[in-house]
Amino acid sequence: MVTTMHIPTLTPLLLLLVVTAILAVIDAVTRLRGRRGVGVLAVIELIVGVLMILSLFIVLPGIFANNILEIILLVVLLLLLIFRGSVRRGFAAITIIALVLDLALLLFGLGWLHIPGIN
What we know:
Helix content: 55-70%
Number of strands: 0
Structural class: mainly alpha
Number of helices: 4
Low-confidence stretches: none
Strand content: under 5%
Radius of gyration: 15 Å
Largest sheet: none
């Protein structure tokens, strides 16, 4: 299977995707460094965040489409908010910001939210 590499065009949705993925990776790394709690969810969050960044440059197979990755990340972030683990209050804010950005990205991707100049 040959994957093609493409260079993405700079758009507001691209910036939203990059910020969401980077915040998810930062949140996952800080949770993995914690002592107890939600290690499995943090690993899933890290993998999905890296796949979202990777999907900008490499065409991933259909099961790893951006909408599926966004839904998985949304569910994992919600579970991480419910089961906080040993994360400090400031890092819970990173989780909430990543959750809101991911939800906005998902709504834009599904076509349920239209803002002139962004879509």
